[in-house]
Amino acid sequence: MRMKVVILAGGFGTRFREETHSKPKPMILIGDRPILWHIMKFYSFYGFNEFIICLGYKGHVIKDYFANYTLQESDMEIDLTTNTASYLSHPTEPWKIKLVHTGDASMTGGRVKRIQKYIGDEPFLLTYGDGLTNVHLPELLTFHQAHGKLATLTAVQPTARFGGLTFGSGDEVVKFLEKPKGDGRWINGGFFVLQPEVFDYIKGDATHFEKEPLEQLAVNGQLHAYKHTDFWYAMDTLRDQQYLQQLWESGQAPWKIW
Predict the structure, then answer these.
(1) Helix (H, G, I), strand (E, B) or coil at 115
(2) Which of 252, 249, 248, 250 is nearest to 38 (CA)?
(3) How far apart are CA 113 and CA 97, in angstroms?
(4) Is 210 helix (H, G, I), strand (E, B) or coil?
(5) How far apart are CA 31 and CA 15, in angstroms?
(6) Burial class (CB in 10 A: 0-12, 13-18, 19+), 12
(7) Between β-strands 131-133 and 29-30, what pairing exists: parallel, antiparallel or unpaired?
(8) Alpha-carbon span 209 to 201, nearest angstrom
(9) How many contiguous H segments (helices) and E segments (strands) does the chain have?
(10) Integer distance in angstroms from the first to the last C-alpha of the chain?
(11) Are 19 and 28 in contact (CB under 8 A)?
(12) Are the CB atoms for 187 and 156 separated by under 8 Å?
């Protein structure tokens, strides 16, 4: 099924001040590529190659990256005697990318609302520009189509940030868990499948998609959750970036399915 992929890439990334003073958070590197590139490669593996990237803070950095993508990724021959250049190879990504400025201060819902004209009356995929997963997208889509409602989110159980202790009758530690899976809570992991009617739930730039729209969809019985129990990770801090970097360098990054 052909569907557009909308990626929210306009936030300030305030917890990454050492990085985001010069670039938006989705441009922080994992390996030698921005996390945004990793997200797009993941969707592309499943055949989703048409992207709408919602820009905001320092959006020009993302525009520059893709505007110069062929130049940076290709082998070239430059003839200084004739002042000409030619490409000897070309990037293999079959991507069509709309880069849309959705406001410097818009909230997530406002950014989604601003790209409505590029979606039209079609269902679409939506995710954040700072999260990685290995969720099986065909199964997610099948789940969404089966329940027939307006919205599906991917529910995840994040790994705890710190190790856990289990005590005996007093202060004796009887079990130590190194970063357990969590406390059983399910949270919104993004990776949405949405019908176009969802736009009707968004009022304007000040709307947080995670608040009024999702809350009202839930009240109306129009929101279902696809439970994903495997890898998911959100890059919120420098420590998170370092963890994802270690996974990438190990050659066993769970999201690298291409």
Answers:
(1) coil
(2) 248
(3) 18
(4) coil
(5) 20
(6) middle
(7) unpaired
(8) 9
(9) 9, 16
(10) 19
(11) yes
(12) yes
Neighbours of 48 (CB within 10 A): 20
CA geometry: angle 100, 105, 111, nearest 5 deg: 40
Q: Which residue has the tokens 């030698």?
A: 32
How far apart (Å, rounded) are the C-alpha atoms in residues 22 and 28?
10
Instruction: Please count the other Cβ atoms lying within 10 Å of the Cβ belonging to residue 58.
Output: 20
pLDDT tens digits, residue range 162-197?
556 667 766 666 566 665 565 668 999 999 999 999
pTM: 0.89
Dist CA 158 CA 180 (whole Å): 9
Residue 255's pLDDT band, with cuts at 50, 70 and 90, is very high
* One-letter amino acid of 125: L
H-helix or E-strand spanning residue 141: helix 137-147
Mean pLDDT, rounded, for 26-47:
97
For the chain, the average pLDDT equals 91
